[in-house]
Amino acid sequence: MQFTELDSPSLIVDASIVRKNIHEMIRMVGDANRLRPHIKTHKTAEGIQLMIAAGIHKFKCATIAEAELLANNGAKDILLAYQPVGPKIERLYQLTKTYPKIQFSCLTDHQQAAKTIGIFFDHHQSMIDVYVDLNVGMNRTGIAPEKALELIKSIQRIAGLNFKGLHVYDGHHRQVDYAEKEIACNEGFQQVETLIKAIEKEGITKPVVVAGGSPSFSVHAKHHDRDCSPGTNIFWDKGYASICPEQHFEPAVKVLTRVISLPGVNKICIDLGHKAVAAENDITKRIFFPDHPYLRPISQSEEHMVLETDEQKSFTPGDLLIGIPYHICPTVALHECLYEVQQGNVIKEWNVMARKRKINI
């Protein structure tokens, strides 16, 4: 069927643009082996398979379900970019036993948390690779670089753990001016370089470094001493397109929505509520309509969004609108599937399998 026959709200994906974005990621780093893309954006088997077909085999994820989806689809090296606590430790262990040929690893940033992980794996005569998560200014997770050496030395003494590397997420660098962003990223990374020297001085094997996300990808891609882990780049969105003009990716996923009411003068209501598009940003930065750039969101509820227009263009209930989300990652997680569209026709459904907290394990 034609995509215009889809019920709304829906997400439509152009696989040809996804492939272009993947190849642009590889072009920017120069070597697919330096890529460890995060799959939190797409959460689909199709997205994983397209990257593997392009020569990418290392991945990053945030949930056990995402890790399982990667394992089911041929990933060779999977980093759980999360410090497992509680039941997640056992679930991670079960993944390593179910897929013994896959290299699994996880993050840690606290001695007691690391010890708990190690005790569990050692109790089961097993071992897990760990990356120490560094806080270089994001202030969300991680240990300060100047305190990390003691943690790393303690990991060396914990049975069940193998210190593998350092994880450096600097998503707080969102300067639109690339020169400013590059300076800020490089200054932040100096703490990491100092730590690496201290690690080697202790006689510990030089760590693998996984650095950056989507906003700082263009900076870290230029440095061959680290792996890069962009996530949003596979689909892209209006938000990153606005703050990363130096990155030449295209929005591959768009929102299909319809006018459902005309509540007042210069106002239309569409069926794009909180349940269909990421709503954490300011109301003006949730959706952009490239064919109608004058449409301004002014309110939103669970099932509705009211748009204001000062143009003469008239709308009728049932009219179709195509928008680009400002934040695609949580938007995808709100939908059960994406509809792959080719030449105006729906040819396939991509199941957003890893939106679930649990697949099997």
Which key features would you list for this structure?
about 25% strand, 9-stranded mixed β-sheet, 10 helices, 16 strands, alpha/beta, about 350 residues
3D architecture notes:
With 361 residues, the chain is of the alpha/beta class. It is 30% helix and 24% strand. The chain contains ten helices and 16 strands. The chain has helices spanning 15-29, 45-53, 64-72, 87-98, 111-123, 145-156, 178-201, 217-220, 238-243, 328-332, and strands at 10-13, 58-61, 77-80, 103-108, 128-134, 161-168, 208-211, 227-228, 253-264, 267-270, 287-288, 296-300, 305-308, 320-325, 337-342, 345-351. Strands 1, 9, 10, 11, 12, 13, 14, 15 and 16 form a nine-stranded mixed beta sheet that branches. Helix 7 links the parallel strand 6 and strand 7. It is globular, with a radius of gyration of 22 Å.
Task: Give the beta-strand count.
Answer: 16
Relative strand content = 15-25%
Structural class: alpha/beta
Quaternary arrangement of the chains shown?
single chain
| Integer average pLDDT | 97
Low-confidence stretches: none
Major sheet: 9 strands, mixed
- The radius of gyration over CA amounts to 22 Å
Helical residue percent band = 25-40%
SSE sequence, one letter per element: EHHEHEHEHEHEHEHEHEEEEEEHEE
**Which of globular, elongated, flat, extended, rod-shaped describes the shape?**
globular
Number of helices: 10
Distance between the termini: 36 Å
